[in-house]
């Protein structure tokens, strides 16, 4: 592995690492994208099965690259985390999502993904307050989704940041639950309101795997701790039926709807929440 690392130093030699070249090009392009506003948020509904209505939408960023077309977040968020550009991108997403949600009915929330690099900065609380204030959005309508990995990195004042966000009245969800080194004690000692069961477990429901047991245990845990529970990546009626039978009442996935542009949110609300 050390030798591979060393290879990256041969940057200026002929035949240089094309992956590195590509990363540098993408970094340049990302800076341009931030300056020129090439991002768009898609919204995916979370359906509350106890009422049959949409309770919130998750904000999912997309990049309209002028030459490469629509780029999904999986292809650029990792790099943006490494080079810090996730901070301005994440701020844009938060501000835009709050503004969009402020135009929706009062009982509809919005969930925004917050990356570790953002959480480790001292100014996330102030940035969140500003976004809410500028949009005129009530704090309880905003939910921040964080992954558990960041909680392991104790250096950083992550705890006091999360406590401060909770004190604002913002909601906090643990995303991708079960994929990392989850310590159950985190669920108690940090101010979470919700657990999102990772879609890898949902995908295997109905097949021969341990996923059902994991899902059952997670749902029971959420009930014991008084947390809301959501399942992501629900693609079939069978998965939905199993989740509902086990007591998971909030469902997100292609079976309900793919993430849609802002302009299609009203149509979804019309379909699920009218009457
Ligand atoms: P995530 O937070 O776990 O978001 C859920 C992802 O699952 C989304 O992918 C969504 O489109 C996808 N998905 C939803 N339903 C289904 C389904 O039924 N089946 C399958 N196979 N997939 C489904 P997307 O939009 O490509 O985002 C990927 C990841 O990028 C997100 O995973 C999140 O970690 C990250 N991301 C997206 N937007 C942002 C953002 O604004 N900030 C940060 N920091 N990360 C973001
Ligand atoms: Ca998420
Ligand atoms: Ca997730
Ligand atoms: Ca994920």
Automatic annotation (TrEMBL):
<protein>
    <recommendedName>
        <fullName>Diguanylate cyclase</fullName>
    </recommendedName>
</protein>
<feature type="domain" description="EAL">
    <location>
        <begin position="23"/>
        <end position="273"/>
    </location>
</feature>
């Amino acid at each position: 592995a050390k030798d591979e690392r060393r290879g990256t130093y041969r940057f200026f030699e002929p035949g240089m690492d094309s992956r590195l070249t590509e990363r540098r090009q993408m970094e340049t392009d990302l800076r341009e994208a931030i300056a020129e506003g090439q991002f768009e948020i898609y919204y995916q509904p979370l359906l509350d099965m106890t009422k049959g209505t949409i309770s919130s939408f998750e904000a999912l960023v997309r990049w309209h690259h002028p030459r490469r077309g629509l780029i999904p977040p999986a292809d650029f968020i990792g790099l943006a985390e490494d080079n810090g550009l996730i901070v301005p991108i994440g701020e844009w997403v938060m501000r835009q999502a709050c503004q969009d949600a402020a135009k929706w009915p009062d009982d509809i929330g919005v969930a925004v993904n917050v990356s570790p690099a953002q959480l480790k900065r001292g100014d996330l609380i102030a940035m969140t307050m500003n976004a809410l204030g500028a949009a005129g959005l009530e704090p309880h309508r905003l939910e921040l989704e964080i992954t558990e990995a960041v909680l392991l990195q104790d250096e950083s004042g992550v705890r006091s940041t999360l406590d401060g966000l909770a004190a604002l009245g913002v909601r906090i969800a643990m995303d991708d639950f079960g994929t990392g080194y989850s310590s159950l004690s985190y669920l108690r000692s940090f101010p979470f309101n919700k657990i999102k069961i990772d879609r890898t477990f949902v995908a295997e429901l109905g097949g021969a795997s341990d996923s059902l047991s994991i899902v059952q245990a997670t749902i029971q845990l959420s009930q014991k701790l008084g947390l809301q529970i959501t399942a992501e990546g629900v693609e079939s009626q069978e998965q939905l039926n199993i989740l509902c039978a086990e007591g998971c009442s909030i469902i997100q996935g292609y079976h309900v709807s793919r993430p849609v542009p802002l302009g299609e949110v009203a149509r979804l609300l019309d379909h699920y929440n009218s009457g």
